[in-house]
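Subject line: Sequence and fold of a protein, written as structure tokens
Body of memo: The sequence and its backbone structure tokens, given next.
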Amino acid sequence: MIIERARVPLSRWQQAAVAMGSAIGALVDPRRADLIAALGETTGKPAFEMVLERMKKSEEGRAILLERPRVVSEQVGHAWDLPENTFGAAYAKFMGSRNFSPDDRPPVRFMETDELAYVATRAREVHDLWHTLFGLPTNLIGESALKVIEFEQMYLPMCMLSVIGGTVRFNEKQRSMFLKHYFPWAVRAGRQCTDLMCVYYERHFSEDLEQVRRKWGIIPAPQHPK
């Protein structure tokens, strides 16, 4: 499948300018998903290239690159009809309970090749699948913890910048909870699990959630401390 996007060719100076502007804008307004996406693309090319090479060495990764599945309503809508214990149903519940749509992700604009653009798109679109697998909420602590896992998996600079920005916005209680419980867990969880960018999730939607967690070495998030 071709990634539908308006490719914007940038010089190195333009990339730096977009990266800096996106970083400042995202810190001012963390809800700006478009700015966070632009920051990830303009600073993440080496990381996406490494992910691409790992995918080429993996059987499921090669299948993903060949078939280019998309986590969009047209292709994952059947998850809403799966039995309650399945991975797909858990994803559907996660999305539905928050009124999220798989189609809400901003398009990739700043990757130089179609192959890298797809890898960046895939990384963006599996974000909520990772939320489901790790049992992480979508509040500031949950998103920051998932960024730690994403950094351990992909080494994207944007992920670590997001964690730093998140900890700045924490209040004292949140910061203590994150640093004591969630940060060390996320580092361990991100290192221990399988290479998550090489998993063809859509093929496993009908499998039991706990079974796929065990198969992929997923450590669920710690329970919220009392």
The first helix runs from residue 12 to 28. DSSP finds twelve helices and no strands in the chain.
